[in-house]
Each structure stands twice: as structure tokens, then as C-alpha cells.
Amino acid sequence: MILSLNRISPDKSDYHQLLYAFACLHQSRTIQQHLRLAIVGGVSPADRGYAKSLKKYAEQLNIHKHVCIIEHLDEKLKPHILAAADVFVAPSCNPQESFGVVLLEALAAGLPIVATDWNGYPEVLSPFYEQFMVPTMASHAVARAIDWTRLTEASAPSFDALLRQLERLASDEQLRKRLGAWGQEYVARFRWQSTAEQLVALWEQLLGERSVNGECSDAAGPAQPPWQPESPVDGLATGYLGAGTRVALARKAGRRPLGHITKGSHFEQDKHRLALLVDICGASGAAGITLDRLRTAAELGIAECDRLVLQLLRYGGLQLANDD
Question: How far is it, in rounded angstroms, from Cα 140 to Cα 232?
């Protein structure tokens, strides 16, 4: 049982990507046991259409008999849902994830975690989990061009990394047990007493640094203006799309991403441009093509090309040229 427990909203996570990754996982020959995916969380009135689209997408992928989508879970049932799961997945890619309480709940329940390497998530999971986290790509150009509430569209978790980590944990019971035991021990550092001690230590460290630098006056505020982000996603993702970023056609045999990317989504109108980008990258061979050359060849602006490239990265149609 793979569990994602969070608010079900396109502003929170791209659950269509998770469903497609689960469909690929379900077809894997290396996975012998029966697999199920549970997407659980609250749904606002504005997001009811999104939850409905997930159920329809699961039917299109022919995995609906193995997927359970639960809306508006009673808080009293949360411990039981966590206890029923074997793997916890947090594919979030939005600026709201400054911390990640759901990660602590999963750790306390002894669950191994597949999470994006995004914003505050790496700090919660510590360097121990680094090898199990999913890298993310973002685009400053897309982030500046869209409304803040749609910033999930300006970023993309690596599809192949998400699928690889899910497969790794689904097929290795001993690894799941080892990570679960570590998590239950590690989560103790987030108890109130431990948190308070860490905050006091941090304040004392900062005060000590000010004393060393001769900044012991009572004057309020830093001498330099505060750091200003380049864009709404600055500092959140693992990497960023730029003119020199090189992308290539995904090398996974038998994958047909375009239909899954566009069918029943707002990317339906983009299917011809998505196909054009795939054709251009395919003609470039394994070495791939830089984004500036791709934009020129496709006659697309920076933000528009980046938006389509992120969608292809999100569903495994393209990959970064230096990825294995």
C-alpha cells in the first residue's frame, strides 16, 4: 500500500503524475506483490473537479481497481490509514511546503518515505534521506508569468526518480523496515523539548556571531537589505531551467507519454507543440539539445517553451541529458 496523505489540490501536488508513475510501477516485472495506491486528504469545493479528474485518469490508465481516493478523511482515522500503509509518498512542489508536518506523521508511524527534494522537505528528512529524495526542476520564467496559486505548474519532480524510488521501496521489504525504524527514532528530535533546545542553541550561536563581528548594538534590523528572491520559486527546487540546460528524449522503451500528458487535461490544446518538442529532441540524439536552441527551433518564447518542457519532464517524455 502506497499512501499519499495531503490536501488533494492541483496547487499542492500533481497527483496525475503520481497516478501515471503508479501505473508504470504496476506494470513492472520486478514487482511481484499486489500493489495499491491511496490518495487521501481534504478537498475544497473549488477542487472537487480536480478530485473527479483523478478518478477519471485512473480509469484511463486502467488502474482504478488498485487506486483508492478518499476525500475528507476524519482526523480520528488518520492513525489507522498510516498504520495500513507500507510506503508514504509526498510529491509536493509548491511554495507552501516550508516544513512538512505530514512527513513527521509518516516518520512517527514507521513508514519509509518518497518525497521531493523541495523547499523545507530536505531539512525535515535530514541528509540520511538524501539518496531517497526526488529531484525537482523549476522555471523562473514560468513562475513569473503565472498566478501565485498556480506555481505548481512552474516546477516538476523528476518522473524517473519518482518511479525509481517507488519501485525500490515496493520491492525491498527489508529496506522499508530499516527506514521505518530509523524514522521512528529520528522523529524524536522534533518533540517540543528538543525543538526548544535547538532554537535556544541557534539564538545563542547568532548572538555570538554578532558579538564577534562587533554588532552588539540594540539597533533593529540588518545593515544590508533583506535577500530578495529572483522569482516565486527561487531557492525551492533542486535545479532550474536555463538557456544552457540540455534535455533529451527519454530512453525508457515502450513509454508513450504524450497521450497520458494531454488526455483530459488543459494540456490537450498543447499536444501538437508537445509532439514538436519531442520530435526536435529525438532528432538531437542522446546528447540532447539546449533549451535556447530548442526554443528557437520550436519558435516558442522562453516561458511557453519552459512550461511545455516541464510537463514533458513531469511525465517522463523528456529527461535532462545528463540523467541516467
Answer: 8
Q: Higher pLDDT residue, 302 or 11? A: 302
Is the model more confident about 256 or about 54? 54
pLDDT value at 189 more than 90: no
Do 185 and 177 contact (CB within 8 A), yes or no?
no
Which run of H or of E encompasses 138?
strand 136-138
Residues 20-33 pLDDT 10s: 999 989 887 667 66
Q: Tens of pLDDT along 61-114? A: 899 999 999 988 888 899 999 999 999 999 988 877 777 789 999 999 999 999
Nearest to 261, CA basis, from 276, 279, 275, 245: 275
Q: Helices (H), strands (E): how many in the chain?
A: 13, 11
**Residue 6's CB: how many other CB atoms inside 10 A?**
20
Phi-psi region of 24 (alpha: psi -120 to 50; beta: other; left: phi over 0): alpha
Band (pLDDT 50/70/90 cuts) for residue 270 is confident
Neighbouring CB atoms inside 10 A of 8's CB total 24
Dihedrals phi, psi of 255, to nearest 5 degrees? -85, 130
Residue 5 and residue 109 in contact, taking contact as beta carbons nearer than 8 Å: no
Q: For residues 226 and 221, what is the distance between their CA atoms, to the nearest angstrom?
A: 9
Q: What would the DSSP string read from start to end of 41-88?
A: E---GGGHHHHHHHHHHHHHTT-GGGEEEEES--GGGHHHHHHH-SEE
Domains and CATH numbers, the chain: 2-189 (3.40.50.2000), 241-320 (1.10.10.10)
C-alpha cell at 22: 503508479
